[in-house]
């Protein structure tokens, strides 16, 4: 029975990812004007004043994703306690903090927190926690898998693990490069929006494009790590 519950809690993560995307899709469909994900940020779907008919779907998707991630993290702690009780799993703690902040950002009204820009702080904390957790868990999973297959190549094993873990941050690196270019070469442009599309600006220069790509990458990593039992 304990094994069943561990597997069920681990499966909550990909189900949460599915809920996240379903919530954003419905929110986009209910957006009062045209919504082009390449040039419009995710936050546009979350604001009640911008998306009165769909923002609850977006917030629900974020909340369910966070709750599913918390279940997965609880299963990771459970497994780690049984196998390596003395080890301090930094990646799991960071991932857990990220999911807690994600749920708080979705479910706690700003007036309850009594902190200026509290939702922005929670969203940033969730992002940082998920980044650190994803990298640490990916490195550990790849290192363990290669250790069983290539015990004679410890140096190369670490290189492969670092490479795959670091690939999760590739969209973040690319968005930093593109935004630095836009700030210098196209300072007259407003913040991301459909105006970019009207002026023929390529989507790959848009912050919104790379924000969505980051969500895709993190969704793939989260689902893979949870299914493979990281």
Please provide a written account of the structure.
It is a single chain. This protein is mainly alpha-helical. It has helices at 2-29, 43-46, 55-83, 90-107, 110-113, 118-149, 154-167, 170-185, 194-198, 207-228. It has one domain (2-228). Helix content is 75%, strand content 0%. The chain is globular, with a radius of gyration of 19 Å. The two termini are 20 Å apart.
Shape descriptor reads: globular
Mean pLDDT over the full residue set: 86
Strand % is under 5%
Taking pLDDT < 50 over at least 5 consecutive residues as the criterion, the unreliable ranges are none
In short:
The chain has 230 residues and is mainly alpha-helical. It contains ten helices and no strands.
SSE layout:
Layout: H1 2-29, H2 43-46, H3 55-83, H4 90-107, H5 110-113, H6 118-149, H7 154-167, H8 170-185, H9 194-198, H10 207-228
Helix pairs in contact: 1-3, 1-10, 3-4, 4-6, 6-7, 6-10, 8-10
